[in-house]
Amino acid sequence: MSKVDLHLHSNASDGQLSPSELISKALEKKLTIISLTDHDTVDGIAEATKAAKNYPQLVFIPGLEMSTDTANSEIHMLGYFTDHTNKKLLTVLEQMRNDRQIRAQRMTTKLNKMGINIDWQRIQEMAANSSVGRPHIAQAMLEKGYINTFKEAFIKYIGREGPAYVERTKISPSEAIGIILEADGLPVLAHPLYTNDPETVIQQLKGVGLIGLEVYYNSYTSEQVEILINLANKYQLIPTGGSDYHGIDESETPLGGAEVPQSSAEQLINLAKQRGHKINLLE
Fold first, then answer.
1. Beta strands, E only, the chain
2. 112: CATH
3. Nearest-angstrom CA–CA distance, 79 and 4
């Protein structure tokens, strides 16, 4: 089990645990470096930062995961060490969350027409005060027994090729990188093998400020990791990684389960220090 996990979600977006509960769980797992990377929101950062301050053995990196699109695929951009009070960032994220709500409603309607009768009000309850997203729809489907695992919802119904998928207002990966950089963040391409033609995407984004590549991820095989290590080396990108933990069901990679090397997190932290971030490093 790795001591590093740089891709975690709380109930500020579509995870099950609160930011402070996530900090506690990371400590139970004896993790030493983590990042909260909620979807299209930084609402959980203040709570997580406050909780982490009580534990000097834990380095907490503020982050987020921005949803973007190209003509051929959906691409997610991670932003590490972002200033969660940056006005432009907050404005863009609010627009994205509003669009996610509309999109989720339309997906729910499509599913209902297919005979998958999940209730919009129940989905909102699951989201509580967080940003509604596809994982909440998957949770509702799981609760009603229409699927057996969380991932099945995406594979059969609400993934990009699924019959209930709905497009959303698009922001490009390059735009997301610009927003992250403006908020003093470090942009990293999330789960790159989900994209069509990863190397072309990496090459293009490197030219607009990409600094890292999520090499160690979820259930990537050793062969896939090796391919991504080679791409990271070729384009001089920091190889990061994380579990993409939501805490929804046992089919997920557990917190700390992506086997991220300590050296990856240290490279990210060192670059942040070079760019003026003050970080309480583990000695």
1. 4-8, 33-36, 59-69, 74-80, 186-189, 212-217, 238-242
2. 1.10.150.650
3. 17
